[in-house]
Amino acid sequence: MKFTAAQIAEILEGEVEGNPEAEVSELAKIEEGTKGSLTFLSNPKYNSFLYTTNASITIVNSDFEVEQPITTTLIKVKDAYKAFSTLLTYYNQVKLNKSGIEEPNYISESAEFGKEIYLGAFSYLGNQVKIGDHVKIYPNVYIGDNVKIGNNVTIFAGVKIYSETIIGDNCTIHSGVVLGADGFGFSPEEGGQYLKVPQIGNVVVENNVDIGAATTIDRATLGSTIIREGVKLDNHIQIAHNVEIGKHTAIAAQTGIAGSTKIGENCLIGGQVGIAGHLTIGNRVKIQAQSGIGRNIKDGEMLQGSPAISYGAYNKSYIHFKNLPKTLNRLDQLEKKINNG
């Protein structure tokens, strides 16, 4: 699919400088731009590439001034980075604009659909499933009984959604995600055996949530495991039963959150963080990568380490950690001097 500079400028509410009929059919980084590609420039560090790029169209900030001859057509906008992001979203919508019901698949007679749905081949929709408008379900997706899915949801190939799960509007769920598998509930018995504790709750995913590939969110023992509005989850995250993630919190890959922990709003949690169960994490908390959290955290704290301590205290302590061999050597020398009189 091809777009002209004039068409792109209209979408972005920008101004064309150069050839309004210049056409593009692909996207590229500015240093790798070729004829027929669209790129952008927002970081002054990359200004020099504007004069060597072969990209047909480049999006730049409205206050950008050209200092040398260029071959690329410019589209000037208020914020080039945001404009390019908007264009990527638009491009993705066009690219993923599928509709209709493919065969073969299984659809329960009691399942309900909204308008303009796409259902990929080899999908399974159980009893009493309810799906909203403009939903895209890619091939090999399993949706269990009594699942409810809102409007404008995209579910990529291979997702497994267990029974009773509820998903809000405008969510994106990437391949390999499992929603609603049993929580890790076992009761120790005499003789070293374990008794399975039935997990009869569900998972609730509110509006505008993104869930990365291969992330798993367990159903509650009782009640709900809840992912609040606007949460962004990276790939390979484990969220245990009865956890609650507050609004607009973002969590990076390979983080594990144990059962019944409550995480507040607008938190930022780095990769490979481990959070113990039955804790309360406040709002606006920042946790650095590979930290271990074993206590309740107040609003606004920044943490690092395992077990995690104050971010500032960790950085001060780290100076001593890395100099420990030198410090021990100095102590040994002092001890020898004292012992030798």
From TrEMBL:
GO molecular function: UDP-3-O-[(3R)-3-hydroxyacyl]-glucosamine N-acyltransferase activity
Source organism per UniProt: Christiangramia antarctica
Family membership: Belongs to the transferase hexapeptide repeat family. LpxD subfamily.
Protein task: Catalyzes the N-acylation of UDP-3-O-acylglucosamine using 3-hydroxyacyl-ACP as the acyl donor. Is involved in the biosynthesis of lipid A, a phosphorylated glycolipid that anchors the lipopolysaccharide to the outer membrane of the cell.
Pathway(s) it belongs to: Bacterial outer membrane biogenesis; LPS lipid A biosynthesis
Subunit structure: Homotrimer.
Enzyme Commission number(s): 2.3.1.191
Record keyword Repeat present: yes
Class of enzymatic activity (EC top level): transferase
Catalytic activity: a UDP-3-O-[(3R)-3-hydroxyacyl]-alpha-D-glucosamine + a (3R)-hydroxyacyl-[ACP] = a UDP-2-N,3-O-bis[(3R)-3-hydroxyacyl]-alpha-D-glucosamine + holo-[ACP] + H(+)
CDD domains xref list: LbH_LpxD
SUPFAM superfamilies, per the entry: Trimeric LpxA-like enzymes (SSF51161)
Gene3D superfamilies: Hexapeptide repeat proteins, MurE/MurF, N-terminal domain
Coiled coil: none
Keywords: Acyltransferase, Lipid A biosynthesis, Lipid biosynthesis, Lipid metabolism, Repeat, Transferase
Domain UDP-3-O-[3-hydroxymyristoyl] glucosamine N-acyltransferase non-repeat region: start-end pairs: 22-89
Organism taxonomic ancestry: Bacteria, Pseudomonadati, Bacteroidota, Flavobacteriia, Flavobacteriales
One Pfam family from the record: Hexapep
Active site (catalytic residues): H241 (proton acceptor)
Name of the protein in its database record: UDP-3-O-acylglucosamine N-acyltransferase
